[in-house]
Amino acid sequence: MTESPAHPALWPAPLASGAVDATVTVPGSKSVTNRGLVLAALSSEPGWLRRPLRSRDTLLMAEALRTLGVGIEETASSSSADSAGGPGGGEAWRVIPAGLHGPATVDVGNAGTVMRFLPPVAALADGPIRFDGDPRSYERPLGGVIEALRTLGARIDDDNRGALPMTVFGGGALEGGPVEIDASSSSQFVSALLLSAPRFNQGVEVRHVGAALPSMPHIRMTVDMLRSVGAQVDTPEAGGEPNVWRVTPGALLGRDLVVEPDLSNAQPFLAAALVTGGRVTIPDWPAHTTQPGDALREIFTTMGGSCELTEQGLTFTGSGRIHGIDVDLSEVGELTPGIAAVAALADSPSTLRGVAHLRLHETDRLAALTKELGELGGDVTETADGLHIRPRPLHGGIFHTYEDHRLATAAAVIGLAVEGVEVENVATTAKTLPDFPAMWTDMLDPAAVPARRA
Ligand SMILES: O=C(O)C1=C[C@@H](OP(=O)(O)O)[C@@H](O)[C@H](O)C1
Ligand SMILES: C=C(OP(=O)(O)O)C(=O)O
């Protein structure tokens, strides 16, 4: 990684010298990898995860499950499904379920998936499981999961804070049954209860009560992945009651899962095509997926490009012009920082709506985007549930990232078009995309890749 000589933690974001033209292989999905790990750990037989994402969030998940007694072996993948090699160089994780044991300590880092998906797993263990993490993890919403688990029969000591740190006193089993939860602050509350529910004595009936649920595609991903390992799940979509999910108790099958590329991590590379009027191809873009990043095909097309899904993957081509957009991002909130970056470079204003819950993500993303784009000369205002962005000429400066991977990648997108943008702590991209700086440089100068990688 090239670092600014004046300040080692500053990464000079490269300015694009022309239209990008690159193929970018994006590593596996964080959301699929961490669900796959949990489901494989709860199965009644060993399973495989091929092309898993290896990043801070997924390594924390794997380490936590190992701490509870699950076997996770890293091997070279031998599946024909994985013969293309692909991200991770054909790596695979063999997951060998075992009895879940405490006492143990789980480090959640700042991974929403770890801090929400694992407390229900811990309730199934046979001893106390302590949960701790980064300072920001203490501020992220968890109270709904804690209260729901208590209703379902778990004993949890959180000093009545409704947040980390806390201890789940696993009793070796959990009764389960009906539970109400307000998951308007994070869809991960619902996913967390559903993922472990086949192992609850009575399964679960989760009823969301409260304001609208964000990130519905991520709940659909949970349901799809549960069904793919043999779980029976009733959903609102399948003619059920609105906001009610039911999971029947039963054994889960060990599966051989090839993890899709992370489409949300494809975002900055697609944005590069849009911002430079160039062309970027992402291999292995799935034809059908529950990942919210698939919405980028429509969103970035509206903002000024066109895309084509072929055998080679998704090719996105920028038109050379960037348009503003008025869009409800409640289903795809994690795409907001990258869309805001493109919107700041557009030829007309944008309104991004439906994402009030982003104030409780890795950082307060609405405040951070308003401040950092503002300090580069942008005109951004926070609304009750999003951002208004009125483009005007930007200048260089330091872009602070608040330990938020998506702010760092958003800053790199701005840096393509604005000279002198320095990204503070670009290494924070390790949360979901550890190779980001090298991938970015390779995209901008594909001809030099063999020499650079030699
Ligand atoms: O379940 C998941 O894998 C995720 C759900 C979403 O969380 P929220 O519903 O809290 O936004 C998303 O933003 C996060 O990046 C990943
Ligand atoms: C919100 C995000 O992560 P987490 O899984 O920690 O909630 C994200 O990746 O944008």
TrEMBL record:
A Gene Ontology term for the protein's cellular component: cytoplasm
Keyword match Transferase: yes
A Pfam family hit: EPSP_synthase
EC top class, as a word: transferase
Protein keywords: Amino-acid biosynthesis, Aromatic amino acid biosynthesis, Cytoplasm, Transferase
Pathway: Metabolic intermediate biosynthesis; chorismate biosynthesis; chorismate from D-erythrose 4-phosphate and phosphoenolpyruvate: step 6/7
UniProt cross-references to InterPro entries, sorted A to Z: Enolpyruvate_Tfrase_dom (IPR001986), Enolpyruvate_Tfrase_sf (IPR036968), EPSP_synthase (IPR006264), EPSP_synthase_CS (IPR023193), RNA3'P_cycl/enolpyr_Trfase_a/b (IPR013792)
Residues that hold phosphoenolpyruvate according to the record: K30, G112, R140, Q188, R365, R406, K431
Binding site for 3-phosphoshikimate: K30, S31, R35, S186, S187, Q188, S215, E334, H361
UniProt EC number: 2.5.1.19
One BP annotation, GO: chorismate biosynthetic process
GO molecular function, one term: 3-phosphoshikimate 1-carboxyvinyltransferase activity
Coiled coil: none
Active-site positions on this chain: E334
Assembly notes: Monomer.
Cited function: Catalyzes the transfer of the enolpyruvyl moiety of phosphoenolpyruvate (PEP) to the 5-hydroxyl of shikimate-3-phosphate (S3P) to produce enolpyruvyl shikimate-3-phosphate and inorganic phosphate.
UniProt record similarity statement: Belongs to the EPSP synthase family.
Protein known as: 3-phosphoshikimate 1-carboxyvinyltransferase
Protein encoded by which gene: aroA
